[in-house]
Request: fold
Amino acid sequence: MAEQLASMRVDYRSVELDVGDLAPTWHEQLGSWLREAESAGVAEANAMVLATAGEDGRPSSRTVLCKGLDPRGVVFFTNYTSAKSHDLRATRYASATFPWYPQHRQVHVRGTVEEVTAAETQEYWRSRPRGSQLGAWASAQSVVVRDRKVLDDALAGVTQRFGDGPVPVPAHWGGWRIVPEQVEFWQGRANRMHDRLRFQLGRDRTWTVRRLAP
Reply:
């Protein structure tokens, strides 16, 4: 396996990315690349790998879906009692990576975190499929369960509870926003000489763009 892994290699032949190619703001550039990934048929183009760390400094990562993007940051929704939410409350910091492998692109977002407002959570909740709404009630996310039947029984219970009526937002569920301090746009290039351009927020709250060595 070690030999097989060592031989796995893709030589990127993508177009270059320079400062003049970027949109005026990080969120406009991220939105543009998101739309391009979706148009190219990338499955779940809004998927991002969220990295957090607990009070003990040990990191964790998992994939979540970006459900909000504007000048304030990127938003995802989850259970507020989950492991990731415990980490976010402990450190108030996170990073996320959008990996668009078919396009040889990545975007890295790093910054502080904040809970979104109840109104923002409610607005997004209304757009969720009913099954996803019920699932949010049924799953005590990150808690150890005995077997699959525990989950199936919990879902059956909340399905019966709400019947054909509306499913309200659980008190333990809502959104987190990553408020960026750095946003890096990565474009794969030949010979591993990749283009890396980073939007950096300064102490004066203005953004500058810097090129990084690959």
Remarks:
- The domain at 10-128+171-212 is CATH 2.30.110.10 (Pnp Oxidase; Chain A).
- The CA atoms of residues 93 and 112 lie 4 Å apart.
- The longest helix spans residues 148-162.
